[in-house]
Fold this sequence. Notes:
Layout: E1 4-5, E2 8-9, H1 15-33, H2 44-58, E3 61-62, H3 70-74, E4 99-102, E5 108-112, H4 119-129, H5 175-198, H6 200-214
Parallel strand pairs: 3-4
Antiparallel strand pairs: 1-2, 4-5
Amino acid sequence: MGNYSHGVGTPSLTSYDRLRVRxxxxxxxxxxxxxxxxxxxxxxxxLQLSALVIAFxxxxxxxxxTEWDIDRFSEPMKNVTDxxxxxxxxxxxxxxxxxxxxxxxxxxxxWYLPGIMPLARVEHLNKIHLPLKDSLADGSxxxxxxxxxxxxxxxxxxxxxxxxxxxxxxxxRKGVVRQWLQDISYAEEFWNKIAEVVLPDLAQVGKxxxxxxxx
Length: 215
């Protein structure tokens, strides 16, 4: 079934492996369509779904879309404002199935994980966010694509130096926001587990940052 370890994939895969996981994934999606999901916790079927989506992505590597070397791309380039001149934009084409994008050394550059959460769970999470509408700048009741960002990175953009501290948003003092954080905590734990699998280095950086904040 091929090998995968810490962001490195190997192309020793077979069509049978993909077909087997696709069949399991399809059957599980049908079962989840009939499942009534709890709005307060993640079901075991959802964990199985995420595992199968990740497995399918590993079994479906896209190796011909870019010739990037991730080590060279991460190296600083003096007086260069746009690396696209030296690293042409990948030719993605149309991607409909879960997949991984690999560099020239078969290391994962990007993950594409459509359907890793069932639609019913997405709807639950959307409802959890609705009470926040009065706490947002424009007071919008409907959150469109890109309107709501849960990542703390957007708040920390202006604090990128090593000597900069970790700051908390003043909105966290609001009761409705604290309730939202409590309601969404189970989903955050679920997302963190996914990150530990597909982005282990980034997940560790997050753990280290939280540890420093705690100290």
